[in-house]
Automatic annotation (TrEMBL):
PROSITE patterns: RF_PROK_I (PS00745)
Keyword Protein biosynthesis among record annotations: yes
Family label: Belongs to the prokaryotic/mitochondrial release factor family.
GO CC term (a single one): cytoplasm
Gene (name only): prfB
UniProt-recorded name of the protein: Peptide chain release factor 2
Native source species: Rothia kristinae
SMART domains named in the record: PCRF (SM00937)
GO function term, MF aspect, one: translation release factor activity, codon specific
């Protein structure tokens, strides 16, 4: 077995780290942290809880980004020192430790490099995710619920707060649709590569003859609007219906008409919210999501890039972007990136980071080709 050329490997680490530093714009990052720190220290910060949450969230994200960069730079320096000491003292066990650290730093740089590819206009935003059952009957509704759990578990493992805004339960099992927020910086940039049609192949637990069933679910991801986006919707363009919140099997879970269905008359966009405690809160949440969808639509029209961000998702044969196969073999495969994993149970438990990273790289490559 050939020995590791630490000099060449460490130089490669330095080159990659330098490129990431340039893309990350460390001086601008430090300026942002100083500005946000000053805003976070303002005595009247929490007079506006939503604005305060945005400031503290952005500050935390940028501090973590700078700390991660600084720590990685220090680890490269420490690795070089370790290799020099190992050579001076003829210590093979120290070289073995250096090999392990080299691999670990390489992986950390690769992960950080993916983050630098999130350069889209809306990538820094929080995300609103909607999952809808497609073709496949009760299996599709069950699949939609499996996907919702998968994304919520992914967010939980990454420490990203989530908020379920609406759940529409199917009659027998699963979900007709569900909408939730992922309240962390760059969650839209990451999750936007998950938008599209997802396909499940398995022995149906709802078929008494044990036949294999193919079902589909659609995932839509839109960026959450900010106050500076200035999306004004005239009252006469909105139709609001109220109804009672419902649970699994269509049962009513509220004794008052607190759920809200909001329709934007000019576009036909419909948003339903029922998970807040009051009609006023559900109305506010519905308006926020409606504004996000209209913002996305407006930008798409301006740039003539129809459905580039949210996607025109049919949830049926012919346009699936990922397949989850549980029978006759075990495999999850992304049809755009060709990334695959042989443990669907782990994927459904939220271990989708590799799929997301592969999707981000694929998207960056596609944009680069389009610009050439």
């Amino acid at each position: 077995m050939a020995s590791t050329d630490f000099t060449a490997e460490i130089q490669q680490l330095r080159d990659t780290y330098s490129q990431i530093e340039q893309v990350s714009d460390v001086p601008a990052l430090r300026e942002d942290i100083a500005r946000l720190s000053e805003a976070a220290a303002a005595p009247d910060l929490w007079d506006d809880p939503d604005a305060a949450q945005a400031v503290t969230s952005q500050l935390s994200h940028k501090q973590s980004e700078l700390e991660r960069l600084t720590r990685l730079g220090g680890r490269i320096e420490d690795l070089e020192t370790m290799v020099e000491l190992a050579a001076e003292e003829d210590a093979p066990e120290m070289l073995a430790e250096a090999e392990t650290e080299l691999a670990s730093i390489s992986k950390a740089l690769t992960d950080l490099e993916v983050v630098t590819l999130l350069s889209g206009e809306y990538d820094p935003r929080e995300a609103v995710v909607t999952i809808r059952a497609g073709a496949g009957g009760v299996d599709a509704a069950d699949f939609a619920e499996m996907l919702m759990r998968m994304y919520l578990r992914w967010a939980e493992k990454n420490g990203y707060p989530t908020k379920v805004l609406d759940t529409s339960y199917a009659e027998e099992a699963g979900l007709k649709s569900a909408t939730f927020e992922v309240k962390a910086p760059y969650s839209f940039g990451r999750l936007s590569v998950e938008a599209g049609t997802h396909r499940l192949v398995r022995i149906s637990p709802f078929d008494n003859q044990g036949r294999r069933q193919t079902s589909f679910a659609a995932v839509e991801v839109i960026p959450l609007i900010e106050q500076t986006d200035s999306i004004e919707i005239p009252e006469n363009e909105i139709k609001v219906d109220v109804f009672r919140s419902s649970g699994p099997g269509g049962q009513s879970v509220n004794t008052t008409d607190s759920a809200v269905r909001m329709t934007h008359i000019p576009t036909g966009i419909v948003v339903s919210m029922q998970n807040e405690k009051s009609q006023i809160q559900n109305r506010a949440a519905a308006l926020r999501v409606l504004q996000s969808r209209l913002l996305l639509q407006r930008r798409e029209e301006e740039n003539a890039k129809k459905k580039e961000l949210a996607g025109d998702v049919k949830a049926s044969w012919g346009d699936q972007m990922r397949s989850y196969v549980l029978n006759p073999y075990q495999m999850v495969k992304d049809l755009r990136t060709n990334h695959e994993q042989g443990n669907p149970a782990a994927v459904f438990d939220g271990n989708i980071e590799d799929f997301i990273d592969a999707g981000i790289r694929w998207r960056a490559g596609t944009r680069h080709e389009q610009n050439d």
